[in-house]
Design brief:
The protein is α/β, with parallel strands linked by helices and 295 residues long. It is 49% helix and 12% strand. Strands 3-2-1-4-5-6-7 form a seven-stranded parallel beta sheet, sandwiched between helices.
Length: 295
């Protein structure tokens, strides 16, 4: 019997891509599946496919950037399945690629509200429900390889994914006493439609960045990104990898081991910076100071 059998997973951005692949993989493990998404038409298709596979599923149209809608999702989940055991904070947007001077404040707000605050709101809402039943659970936050290495021309996206990694590390220690396992998924390129995120962009966030996307330079950048994503990893593999990693109690879930050298180079640079700090006469007295532990 699977460790997930009969338990309930709530998955945002669950109508397609990585979110749907995780829903499929968890359904195979015998979980009740709640998929939430901002796209109602795609959500219906996803629900039908899950039902056809024999899954017990609830679909809810919602915007993760709206805290009140999270309360509604929680109420519907409890009414249908009684408890929440897993939250997958997957919903995310790519933002408008380009130099900092072409990323307007509305676009920053959009990416921050969905990719960062959506994760915060979801965790604030669902984790207390996991604590209430005392059976433990799982919190899976979907970041990106951009959470490990900065991505040029994607400042807003990178900022949110670095934040999601950091929050996950913080919550990993915080939630251990409650038997809630935290993992953060950091994929590189996967065959999804995140590069077409603006198709669901809420009206209050539309601005100059959207006009840039329709320009010749914007179209050229979009075409290049489409070619890269078309060569990406199949989402189905990501879903199965998440099951594998959660069973192994992994904090960091990687799907592209070929990027290991890139991350290693980053940490080599960080280590070298510490060496330079240690050699500085200005900091000689700090070397022997006790390290403060926060755990």
């Amino acid at each position: 019997m699977s460790m997930f059998e009969g338990k309930t997973a709530v998955i945002t951005g669950g109508a397609e891509g990585i979110g749907f692949s995780i829903a499929q993989a968890m359904a195979k493990q015998g979980m009740n599946i709640v998929i939430a998404d901002i796209d109602p038409q795609q959500l219906v298709q996803a629900e039908n496919r899950l039902r056809e596979s024999g899954a017990k599923v609830l679909s809810v149209t919602m915007d993760v950037a709206d805290l009140e809608q999270w309360s509604g999702l929680a109420e519907q989940t409890i009414e249908r399945f009684g408890k929440v055991h897993m939250l997958v904070n997957n919903a995310g947007v790519g933002g408008s690629a380009g130099p900092i001077e072409q990323t307007d404040n509305k676009d920053w707000s959009w990416v921050l509200d969905v990719n960062l605050m959506g994760v915060v709101y979801g965790t604030q809402t669902m984790v207390p429900l996991m604590k209430q039943h005392g059976e433990g659970g799982w919190l899976i936050n979907v970041a990106s390889m951009a959470g490990m290495i900065g991505v040029p021309m994607a400042g807003a996206y990178t900022a949110t994914k670095v934040a999601v990694v950091g929050m996950s590390e913080s919550w990993y220690a915080e939630l251990q006493p409650h038997n809630i396992q935290v993992s953060v998924l950091c994929p590189a390129f996967v065959k999804t439609r995140i590069n077409l995120s603006t198709r669901n962009k809420q009206g209050q966030y539309k601005g100059d960045a959207d006009q840039h996307e329709s320009s010749a330079a914007g179209k050229a950048m979009a075409a290049h990104m489409q070619q890269v994503i078309d060569k990406g990893l199949a989402p189905e593999i990501v879903g199965e990898r998440v099951v594998e990693a959660v069973k192994g109690k992994e904090l960091y879930i990687f799907t592209h081991p070929n990027y290991r050298v890139v991350v290693q180079n980053r940490f080599k640079a960080i280590d070298a910076a510490f060496e330079r700090a240690a050699a500085s006469p200005l900091l000689a007295d700090v070397l022997d100071e006790e390290i403060v532990s926060f755990s």
